[in-house]
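Backbone-to-sequence.
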């Protein structure tokens, strides 16, 4: 493991390929679904070597019930006079501009931010993100789990108000600084992923019933029926399943492919490419699944756990992208033998 506890001194040689600045972000939301909203946001701006430049915090009126108040502590009354996201989007963008977005489980924070900007018909000025969970794995930190409190405890950072966006962002900024410097000392390549802004928004589309059900479980009536993107029904794969992918071999049309976790390319775009190549997208993993694509095979998600149980082949997104360039055609389906007609008689 790298020596990650030295926080005072900068590494003698800083990697020239490292970013010029970071925006450590935390957002609290009404829930986890695609049509949930941001209720508060905080940004700590850091320079190239992880030192704090300034910080910013705001509550946001989600235009619906606030969701799990017992987690973030923000009631409808507290948010009634808060600005709408469209009103703070310019200031938020200025905090992100030209920086790498850093967050703990960054795919979630980025997804919520991207959806809010899509609703506001604007584009957030951030092109890369860094997940501190992925960075802690690269550093080999001996953490018992991937919770922010565990990362904070490792670096001796004291949490004061867990699930308060400003304090969570402060804690993460203080834990990110020694992580960044440890990575620099070791000459590690930072696990940066691309941020692709969303451009689709249908304010009149109804939310799926399952999503509405999850909102109702928070104990309030949503009153919000919009969805950031309509769900799409994919056409059935016209090819039979040829079986499992052989590691080191080629993909073949009809293979059942499942995805798990964060991807640098927008998930739906990646799935579209797979479908165009003749593959079947599996929403769950079973013994019939040919391949699991994930950038984090040790994440412990239900799909990675089942892949281990079923001995399903696992590859990362980069390898999958290479394989998509040359997918073998499906085996021809043998023609049915015509049954002889009975003689006239």
């Amino acid at each position: 493991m790298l020596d990650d506890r030295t926080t005072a001194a900068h590494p003698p040689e800083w990697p020239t390929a490292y970013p010029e600045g970071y925006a450590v972000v935390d957002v609290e939301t009404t829930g986890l679904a695609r049509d949930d909203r941001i209720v508060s946001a905080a940004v700590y701006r850091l320079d190239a070597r992880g030192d704090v430049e300034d910080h910013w915090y705001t509550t946001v009126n989600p235009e619906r019930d606030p969701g799990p108040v017992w987690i973030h502590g923000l009631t409808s009354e507290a948010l009634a006079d808060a600005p709408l996201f469209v009103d703070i989007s310019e200031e938020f963008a200025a905090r992100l501009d030209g920086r790498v977005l850093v967050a703990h489980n960054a795919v979630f924070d980025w997804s919520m931010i991207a959806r809010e900007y899509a609703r506001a018909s604007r584009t957030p000025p951030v092109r890369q993100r860094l997940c501190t969970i992925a960075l802690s794995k690269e550093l080999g930190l001996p953490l018992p789990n991937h919770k922010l409190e565990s990362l904070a405890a490792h670096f001796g950072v004291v949490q004061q108000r867990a699930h308060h966006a400003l304090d969570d962002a402060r804690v993460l900024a203080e834990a990110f600084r020694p992580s960044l410097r440890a990575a620099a000392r070791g000459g590690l390549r930072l696990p940066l992923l691309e941020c692709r802004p969303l451009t689709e928004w249908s304010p009149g589309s109804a939310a799926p019933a399952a999503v509405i059900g999850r909102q109702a479980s928070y104990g309030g009536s949503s009153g919000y029926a919009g969805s950031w993107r309509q769900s799409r029904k994919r056409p059935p794969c016209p090819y039979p399943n040829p079986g499992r992918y052989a590691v080191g071999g080629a993909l073949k049309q009809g293979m059942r492919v499942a995805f798990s976790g964060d991807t640098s390319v927008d998930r739906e775009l990646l799935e579209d490419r797979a479908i165009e190549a003749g593959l079947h997208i599996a929403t769950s993993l079973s013994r019939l699944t040919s391949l699991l694509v994930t950038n984090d095979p040790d994440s412990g998600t239900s799909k990675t756990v089942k892949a281990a149980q079923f001995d399903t082949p696992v590859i990362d997104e980069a390898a999958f992208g290479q394989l998509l360039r040359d997918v073998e055609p499906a085996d021809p389906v043998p023609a049915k033998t015509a049954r002889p007609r009975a003689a006239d008689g």
